[in-house]
């Protein structure tokens, strides 16, 4: 089994050595978010019935989506590393995803604030749980990764 942090010399499009770590965090983020959605659907239903079910599902999905968008945008922006406009594209993509998340968050708050069909307390705790789980997941993935100190570009 090959080390995912090592660059693949046969790959026509070289990526930073952090790319496999970002993709691993994204994959595990999807798995953890799916598990949290299922868990909070059950917890929410037990706490307050159908409104709790929707609150738990929407809260954990929003939290997971927002946190995975940052990792996903960085991984996507790394595809432009060989281009002259890489720095501009990188920050444009990452900051653009942050602006998009901010707009989606404001719209979600406005639309869901007075919704009678969901329990906003369960929604809140779902968001908090997904943020906490994502932070723990990122720490575990990054602490177990092996990224070389010297990048491919600085090798002789």
From TrEMBL:
Annotated transmembrane regions: 25-47, 53-77, 89-111, 123-143
Keyword Membrane tagged: yes
Keywords in alphabetical order: Membrane, Transmembrane, Transmembrane helix
Domain of life: Bacteria
Designated name of the protein: 3-oxoacyl-ACP reductase
Organism annotation: Leucobacter chromiiresistens
